[in-house]
Amino acid sequence: MFNLVIFGPPGAGKGTQSAKIIDKYKLAHISTGDMFRMHISQNTALGQKVKQILADGLLVPDSITIDMLEEEVQNNPDATGFIFDGFPRTVAQAESLDKFLEGKGQKIDLVLQLDVTEAEIKNRIAERKKVSGRADDDEDKLIKRIDEYFTKTIHVLPFYQEQGKVVKINGIGEVESIFGMICAAIDEAK
Ligand code: ADP
């Protein structure tokens, strides 16, 4: 079992690198952002509840997010490990994830921090908006999401740093060279 958190601001490249990691290491991918977008597109009860929150670039309440995530882990009993993408985004989420995994005799093995400057993420998301059509990639919503990151999510880092689990990766450069650094960190932690 190998459980990994991929961490970084919006637009850091979490999705891109996650896809490559899954392919190579055969981990199950859980992206809370993708899950919320799926609920919204299928117009489920959960989707209706969170639609406006996502459109506003705000964080979904912890209780909703944690329940959804735990259910998804339980739905993948055969997974040999998980990559958590976009979760945990608050210290309360990180604490509950630790407790949840502990109850299953598991833990987080590695936290990859993709380090990218604010100027770079703004550029990237402006580019992504042209193809993604994501309403929350609009500039005012983006500012809100970056704000949520720097006020709430950033505190998740010291939580894992105290456990000695964080490896910082420079997220600016070629996709392949960033992936090379990620693989080195995973191979070392495995
Ligand atoms: P990005 O990292 O590019 O901002 P995500 O796809 O990870 O995008 O998340 C999109 C939105 O989904 C967030 O802005 C937030 O509204 C919601 N969301 C995703 N994960 C969480 C989480 N762990 N806690 C609360 N809200 C979340």
Folded structure, characterized:
- The protein is α/β, with parallel strands linked by helices.
- The protein has one domain: 3-Layer(aba) Sandwich (Rossmann fold).
- It has nine helices and five strands.
- The chain binds adenosine-5'-diphosphate (ADP).
- Adenosine-5'-diphosphate binds at residues 10-11, 32-33, 36, 53-54, 57-60, 65, 86-87, 89, 93, 136, 145.
Using brief descriptors, characterize the structure shown.
Rossmann fold, 5 strands, binds adenosine-5'-diphosphate, alpha/beta, globular, about 190 residues
What is this entry, summarized?
This protein is of the alpha/beta class and 190 residues long.
Order of helices and strands: EHEHHHEHEHHHEH
Report the bound ligands by name, code or SMILES. adenosine-5'-diphosphate
Q: Mean pLDDT across all residues, rounded?
A: 95
Question: Multimeric state of these chains?
Answer: single chain
- Helix- and strand-based class? alpha/beta
Strand content: 5-15%
**Within the largest sheet, what's the order of strands?**
2-3-1-4-5
Question: Which stretches are low in confidence, meaning pLDDT under 50 for 5 or more residues running?
Answer: none
How far apart lie the N and C ends? 9 Å
What is the fourth-level CATH superfamily?
P-loop containing nucleotide triphosphate hydrolases
**How many strand elements?**
5
At the third CATH level, what is the topology name?
Answer: Rossmann fold
Number of self-contained structural domains? 1
Name the overall outline. globular
Largest sheet: 5 strands, parallel
CATH class: Alpha Beta
Compute the number of helices: 9
Rg over alpha carbons: 16 Å
What is the share of helical residues? 55-70%
Going by CATH, the architecture would be 3-Layer(aba) Sandwich
